[in-house]
Amino acid sequence: MKPMDLVRKLRRDAAFEPSALARGKETLMATIRQEVETQRRPSIVPQLPYQDIRAALDFLERAFGFREVPNARLVSAEGVIGHSLVEFGGGVIGIGTQGAHRAVSPMRGGVESQYISVYIDDIDAHYQRALAAGAQIATALREHASGRTHRAYEALDPEGHRWRFVQLMGEVPRP
Amino acid sequence: MSSPSDAEVIGRSLDQPEAFGVIYDRHAATVLRFLGRRAGAEVAEGLVGELFRIAFERRKTFDTSRATALPWLYGIGSNLLLKHRRGEARRLRANARMAAADEAADRRAGAKALDARVLFPRVANAIEALPDGEREALLLFAWEDLSYQSVAEALELPIGTVRSRLNRARAQLRELLEPGGEKRVKRR
Q: Residue A114, exposed/middle/buried by CB under 10 A (0-12, 13-18, 19+)?
């Protein structure tokens, strides 16, 4: 027998789990999604500290319509979320642990050191959604004539971070 | 219209990463079988996603003058398999035993079956004893039915080097078929 034929005699196929290909594809697609998310990430990402990140992520989605960035969550072996990212439109905000990087949740520190403006298209619907989710309204929804005409309201999330939601007027046709 | 070539798909995936999923759909089954033959089902199942993840991350370096990505994927797989040499050697020895048993079960083989029980483990040992580069060229050629050109693309070697590696591997295997051949091979 020729050497190559002998080598071929030792060739044996393995028996695979039917799900093997699907699992491999999931590994690849997770990598691809991560790259897509990274490409989309803005150059400046504010980081907000929370005592309860899980509750914060849930609230920000329910009340404000933010979306947690896929695969962004960092979870410890004990199942505690240490950090994640939420996105809305073209913006991304880090949701981190109270005390880490010396950042303090207003719930702990008693002060809000900043507020974050979020530009949205339909402020009436957004306001109703936030109300229904139990957001604390800090300043009521109203029109402002200073500078460019806009409608805005401010809400506090469960830990006291202040969010200002703004709809610029004139861009969209008024009814 | 015919479907786009691998090179076109990979080119498009530079701007649209999701497009790379097509490369998986086209070649993952082939690549999984390749990894399985070499390292067994469990290792192969763990490696196939990793292999395509690496390919995706290196897609900028794919030579788009090549129509098919398969040799390139084989090459990435060959590198990954280097970390699983012991499992591969175990599997090769088991394959040799099975090949010998197959011959024994074939009644027409008769006296040859006894030879097979000696011969196939020798073949396995000889493959094992080859330097990594020669073994890789040999197995891509003999088990995966790659052409010399494809083996050259997979291992990123000139085709002449592939030819000489395969010739050396052949010569070494031929030696062990001679009486007392195994001892000579082992002494190297």
A: exposed
pLDDT along chain A (175 residues), means of 10: 88 93 95 82 92 97 93 89 93 94 91 93 96 95 89 96 93 48
Which residues of chain A neighbour B41 with C-beta distances below 8 Å? Answer: 14-17, 20
Interface contact B177, partner A, CB < 8 A:
yes
The contacts of residue A146 (CB under 8 Å, 6+ apart) are: none
Strand (E) positions, A108-161? 115-119, 136-144, 150-156
The count of C-alpha atoms lying within 13 angstroms of the C-alpha of B70, restricted to the half-sphere facing its C-beta, is: 21
For B21, the token pair is: 């999923």
pTM confidence score: 0.65
> Quick check: B120 and A9 CB within 8 A?
yes
Q: Using alpha carbons only, give the angle B98, B104, B108 rounded to the nearest 5 degrees.
A: 135
Contacts of A7 in chain B (CB under 8 A): 123, 127, 138-139, 142-143, 173
Pair B51, B23: CB distance under 8 Å: no
Tell me, what's the ipTM?
0.86
* Euclidean distance between CA atoms B38 and B83, whole angstroms: 12
